[in-house]
Design goal:
Blueprint lengths: L3 E3 L3 H11 L5 H19 L5 E7 L4 E7 L4 E7 L3 H10 L4 E2 L2 E5 L6 E6 L9 E5 L2 E2 L3 H12 L4 E5 L2 E2 L1 H10 L5 E3 L1 E2 L2 E2 L5 E2 L5 H6 L4
Parallel strand pairs: 1-12, 4-5, 4-6, 4-8, 8-10, 9-11, 10-12, 11-13
Antiparallel strand pairs: 2-3, 6-7, 14-15
The structure holds 1-O-pyrophosphono-5-O-phosphono-alpha-D-ribofuranose and uracil.
Length: 210
C-alpha cells in the first residue's frame, strides 16, 4: 500500500516470531519490543534530509553530511507505546516525549482518550507516533487528529504489527502520513485483535495478563 513501509529484515522478523509466541515471558517480550523499536527508528530516518558540511579529518579537509532535521517529538500511545520509547530515544536522544493516553473501549473498540499534554511548539516538530499495534487504526487515527489540531504537519507513524484493515483506514483518512511497520498480518478477529498477532501488547509489556 502506498505510503506504508514494511521493514522486511531477517533480524527483525526473527525477533518478531519470538514476540508472537505465547510462551515468551514479560522480560523477553519487553526486550524484543525495545530492540525492534530501535531497528524501526533507524529505518524512519532513511528519508531524513542531510546537509553537506566541510570537516577536517586528521588527514585532510573533507565534505561530509550531517542531519538537517529540526526538532523531533516522539509520541507514544499509552500504555503499549511506552515499550518502544527506549528504542527510539537510543536513536533520537535529543527528542521530546509527548505522551498520549488512549485506550480502546472493550465493547465498541473505539479509542477513548484519558490523557494528553502538548506544548504549543509541537506544531513545528516532526512527530513520530509509536505504538506496537495498529489494529483497527482507531487509536493512531485519534492521535494523528490530536496532532493535526495542534497544527502539526509532519507526522509519521511507527507500529510493530499492523492489520490491513487499520492500514487502509488510516491511509484513506491521512494519505500523506507515512506508516512504518515490521509486518502486516492477515486480518482482525471479531474482537478486533490482530490475527495471527501477538495478543494484547500492553498486557504483555507490563505483565498484566489475566
Ligand atoms: C492497544 C494498542 C493500540 C491499540 C490498537 O492498546 O497498544 O494502542 O490497542 O488498536 P486499534 O488500532 O484498534 O486502535 P489498548 O487500547 O489495548 O491499551 P493499552 O496499551 O493500555 O493496553
Ligand atoms: N491491541 C493489541 O494489543 N493487540 C491486538 O491484536 C489489537 C489491539
Amino acid at each position: 500500500m502506498e505510503n506504508t513501509f514494511v521493514i522486511d529484515n531477517p533480524m527483525i522478523t526473527d525477533r518478531l516470531t519470538v514476540l508472537r509466541m505465547k510462551k515468551t515471558g514479560t522480560r523477553k517480550f519487553r526486550e524484543i519490543v525495545k530492540e525492534i523499536a530501535t531497528f524501526l527508528a533507524y529505518e524512519v530516518a532513511r528519508e531524513f534530509p542531510m546537509r553537506e558540511i566541510t570537516i577536517e579529518t586528521p588527514l585532510c579537509k573533507s565534505k561530509q553530511k550531517k542531519l538537517d532535521v529540526g526538532e523531533i517529538s516522539i509520541v507514544p500511545i499509552l500504555r503499549a507505546g511506552v515499550g518502544m520509547i527506549e528504542g527510539f530515544t537510543t536513536v533520537y536522544p535529543d527528542t521530546r516525549i509527548i505522551n498520549v493516553g488512549v485506550q480502546r473501549d472493550p465493547v465498541t473498540h473505539k479509542p477513548v482518550e484519558y490523557y494528553h499534554k502538548m506544548p504549543a511548539s509541537i506544531k513545528n516538530s516532526k512527530c513520530i507516533i509509536i505504538d506496537p499495534m495498529l489494529a483497527t487504526g482507531g487509536s493512531i487515527a485519534y492521535t494523528i487528529e490530536l496532532l493535526k489540531n495542534e497544527g502539526c504537519e509532519d507526522i509519521v507513524v511507527v507500529a510493530i504489527l499492523a492489520a490491513p484493515e487499520g492500514l487502509q483506514a488510516i491511509h484513506k483518512q491521512y494519505p500523506k502520513v507515512p506508516i512504518y511497520c515490521a509486518a502486516v498480518d492477515d486480518h482482525l478477529n471479531e474482537d478486533k485483535y490482530i490475527i495471527p498477532g501477538l495478543g494484547d501488547a500492553g498486557d504483555r509489556i507490563f505483565g498484566t495478563e489475566e
